[in-house]
Specification:
about 375 residues, mainly beta, metal ion binding, oxidoreductase, nine-stranded antiparallel sheet, six-stranded antiparallel sheet, HgmA_N
């Protein structure tokens, strides 16, 4: 994270005695990235965070990965997936994946178990519904349009707050954060960045739970393990540092516009290992007198492009069957662009009321069974039709 936070009770100096009311020491835990060479936070527990009483292998639903063959654009209708009767973590339907990231979708109506992703960071985007993200750092209330960045190995759970919770999740094989070009050498957001520290939300108070023999599901590089902890991990009385879960609303992203059509990098919001995440938000569009506001046909030879349509009207896709909750995949090796007639229709339009999340990956994405089950098989041929 680009800035420091302090929450709850702390001793004045790090790595010094900090005692509980009964005189025993609080248990200090340093959580850090890249060994001891990157961001970290220091947490103070009532109980030892190492005290486990059981461990057993866990097998989640197995989704295979199938190459995008024959190579073609794809349209996945996430709202066709089964709704409810599951939780926002173990109930994720895997849609697209490569060795750098996995893109999943969940429709949940119940709290998840306690969970830790020991492989990489997660970016959870809330399409609809409200939830509370509870973690060892405290809790975050989130709602439609919120991105939540959950760093690697943060122990947490997701609790829907009434009704269905719809989330798109990008699980990384590394770390997700603001693009480096938005930050100073010391981590402050620069003036040209489309969002800043004021737009970010982090936990503001400790979350304390007194329970014993608590199960925690851990996803790691060799599979999954279900641990039983002697005490509930939510026993942190205070922490400080630059590593913690944080939320940012897509509605706080300030779009960069121009006289002619601006390329996708101006919409970039986060970067991860070999992928980027972008936000397309309502905005004034191209104001040159001869401008064509919709995108030109383009062939990104180094990336697969994924767009999740999460609100408004996406003018360039009219007539393609794209709807709320749709995901389009335009792979490297395929030239893609607006639907037939979109360029002419867009001339003279001054404002786009659209909301979409884009994930561009620099290695090809495979398809998982849930994506194939809710795919629109006619999408690839829609450019050959006249509207």
């Amino acid at each position: 994270m680009p800035y420091y936070r302090s929450v709850g009770d702390l001793p004045r100096k790090r790595h010094t005695q900090f005692r509980q009311p009964d005189g025993s020491l609080y248990a200090e835990e340093l959580m850090g990235q890249e060994g001891f060479a990157s961001d970290s936070s220091l947490l103070y527990h009532r109980h030892l965070p190492t005290a486990i009483v059981a461990a057993e292998e866990y097998w989640p639903p197995a989704w295979s990965r199938t190459p995008n063959l024959p190579l073609k654009p794809r349209h996945v209708r996430t709202h066709k997936l089964d709704a409810g009767n599951t939780d926002p973590i173990l109930g994720r339907a895997h849609l697209l994946a490569n060795d750098d990231c996995r893109i999943s979708y969940a429709v949940a109506d119940r709290p998840s178990p306690l969970y830790r992703n020991a492989i990489g960071d997660e970016c959870v985007y809330v399409e609809d519904g409200r939830a509370r993200i509870e973690s060892v750092f405290g809790s975050l209330e989130v709602g439609p349009g919120d991105y939540v960045i959950i760093p690697t190995s943060v122990l947490h759970r997701i609790v829907p707050l009434g009704g269905l919770l719809r989330t798109l999740v990008v699980e990384a094989a590394g770390h997700i954060g603001p693009p480096r070009r938005y930050l100073s050498v010391r981590g402050q957001f620069l003036e040209h960045a489309p969002y800043c520290e004021r737009d970010l939300r982090g936990p503001v108070s400790p979350l304390l739970v007194d329970e014993t023999d608590v199960d925690v599901y851990v996803q790691h590089r060799r599979g999954w393990t279900r641990f039983t902890y002697a005490h509930h991990p939510f026993d942190v009385v205070g922490w400080d540092g630059c590593l913690y879960p944080w939320a940012f609303s897509i509605h706080d992203f300030e779009p960069i516009t121009g006289r002619v059509h601006q390329p996708p990098p101006v919409h970039q919001t986060f970067e991860g290992p070999n992928f980027v995440i972008c936000s397309f938000v309502p905005r004034k569009v191209d104001y040159h007198p001869l401008a064509i506001p919709v995108p030109y046909n383009h062939h990104n030879v180094d990336s697969d492009e994924v767009l999740f349509y999460t609100g408004g009207n996406y003018e360039a896709r009219r007539g393609s069957g794209i709807e709320q909750g749709s995901i389009s995949l335009h792979p490297s090796g395929f030239t893609h662009g607006p639907q037939p007639g979109a360029a002419e229709r867009a001339i003279g339009i001054g404002y786009f009321d659209e909301l979409a999340v884009m994930v561009d990956t620099f290695r090809p994405l495979d398809l998982c069974e849930p994506a194939l089950e809710c795919e629109d098989p006619e999408y690839a041929w829609t450019w050959a039709r006249r509207s």
